[in-house]
Design a protein that fits this description.
By secondary structure, the protein is an alpha/beta fold. The protein contains 29 helices and twelve strands. α19 links the parallel β1 and β2. α3 packs parallel to α11, α4 crosses α17 and α16 packs antiparallel against α17.
Length: 795
Amino acid sequence: MRPADVVKRVLLGRPLATARLEHERLGNPTALAVFASDNLSSCAYATEEILRVLVPVVGLAAFSLVVPISLAIVVVLAILLFSYRQTIKAYPSAGGAYIVTKDNFGILPAQVAAVSLLTDYVLTVAVSVSAGMQALSSAVPVLHAQRVPLAIGFIWLIAWGNLRGVRESGRLFAVPTYLFIVSMLGMLAFGAVRALGGDLQPSTVVHPTHQVSLGTGVVTVFLILKAFASGGAAVTGVEAISNGVPAFRKPEWVNARRTLMWMGSLLGIMFIGLSLLASHLRVVPVEDESKSVVAQIALAVFGDGPLAHAMFLGLQAATVMILILAANTSFADFPRLASFQAGDAFLPRQFTHRGHRLVFSSAIVALGAASTALVVAFNASVTQLIPLYAIGVFTSFTMSQAGMARRHLRLRESGWRSGLLINGVGAIVTAVVAVVIAVVKFGDGAWMIMVAVPLLVAVLLRLHRQYADEERELTEGLAGAEDAPPARLRVTVLIDACDSKTLHAVQYALTVAPRNLELLHLSTDPEETGRLVAAWEALGLPRSLRVEACPEGNLAGCLRSYAEEVVASAEALTLVMPGPARVGWLERIRRGRTGDDVREAVNGLAGVTVTVVRDHGGEGHPLVGADGRVRVSPRARHVVAVFVDRIDRSTVQALGYASALDPDGVRAYHVGVDPERAAALLDAWPRVASRSGIPLEAVHCPDRNVARTAIDIVARLEGPDTEVSVVLPRRTYARWWHRLLHDRTGRTLARALAGRPHVDVVTIPYRLGHAVVPAPSRGIDAGPEDRAALTGRRL
């Protein structure tokens, strides 16, 4: 295994086969822990955020307002619950705001919903973990100063749990979630009994005296709305279940609806219970956030004594755990939403790939990095993060419910009138709440989200346009490509020394093109060149060297001039560069970028290919006979394997090159990570690539380790006297950032196969972002109806 594979196995466990995806489903109790922890944990800070707005302004009057405001938020919660019950049934394959909005309003409005949700997921991680640090410092005050590094550590602990896979994350988070539910309900019940018995007295803390009377009209209305907006964070996470329906066991939508109602009911009870106790006890939030309102309530409810202290610590431990693990809701939903957008070409393709443990690893790492940046930027302060928090999620709520209302009007299915009423009311209520939050929290930081969302949407549209331009350049006009015969291929070996690796490169060239071969030496030192020519002739080699003088040592410019001369004569050129079997990092530093610079000099030329032939030694390589002469004989058999991911101009160019090599056998292979995509490619291949005359074989890759599957394929082709050329299409891009939008599977394959003797990797560059070159050698016939099946891309 490669070192990276070893590290993955140690940290994450054995890789899971793709077929296991169906078994990585969640039962309702585990799903409640995975998807509801964000929603349930918000009660730990929602009441506190309401009081932080009210107490400094209206003082004692805040405790008469906190319960009505909390009830209003619970009413919004109830509307959302019944609204999302409709969504889950209508979209059992995943009914998040992105899918619903795209289906009913189109792709552009869907990006607004998606960006709103993605930013909310990042903020959920930052807020939840920061609130967890506040709960931790409430029990252990000395840790308050270390809240930022602790928060970062917990973020990456959650990320690691999710990288291990869905089932592992569910098991990891189930116990803390249910411990929190039991502890919180137990405290609320105990507090209610004591309050009803007259045994629970209000706090004696002196409250602020700079108060505004409740009769000050507009100021008070604005204050109440601001408090409502701060407490509105309690309903975030409601959409998590509708976005994660595919993770439930069958029947998915039925189990998802049940779990949704359990989640909403538990949140409503705990939120109202905490607000009632906070109002009764007149708890004032601590200004530096070193002790939470929940902690103050628990201390008052449990009282003094060893048992009471143990109960307090138990509740705080449960609160810390669920607040930290509440971030798991985002880690469950952010990657799934990102994969939907990446599949529609609005995010980098890497977000569509399932990793080592069947999870979207790239998105998990991206979420961890973004939330870490927020924790550092806002010093892990819940109060500073809350103003940014709810506006994004209520925007997505509004678009999702409006989309459902339009769906009811469009389809008029059974029960559509009641559904329209529920979702219509949901859309109106959430739209009003979103506007309220935007207005009253604008100066506190909501403006950042209001600016960030349109900017991010613009970035996604730019990415989409880039993907669309690439797709157009790669696929348009392929139908009716010319039937020109393969171009005559010249193979030129670059000779810089008279050693084993150079002789092996000559052997490879004799194998692939014995009749059209040239040995080229680029001379920068006449004396050294003379010694090289003399040594070459002394070995008795059948081919002489062509020497080209390079003034001022400009190897790259000299090689480019030679390549342009060959291409101008209507020949395709393969430059063979000798290379060692292994190049360590010290050797790379010593040699510098000379080899890279030489390759880059010709990589942009149409019809020019660079092949590095590595010398592995051993059987079948050139030998020095007893008479001192070298035996350089071509291998008896030469076969070519072309690895195909999709059909486009780069693939056609690679197929043409493979045919021009005139091998003893040539075959195309598709390493199938997605069985449906592989089946579509096999079905379309006869119609699209029939004129190439190259058969296609799809090889299933159960663990998504494409490199290992490619090695297995090549091993079947190897033989005692066989040279194997592996041809890889490679798309090169006009700008460096375009490369970031694509995975590096081709480079991974090249590195994996480089260590095998008599296996030579040839990458065929196709330059994107430039004028479209004619289809090379053999044509194909790809009409628009075939493109989706062949590429597997949705635009």
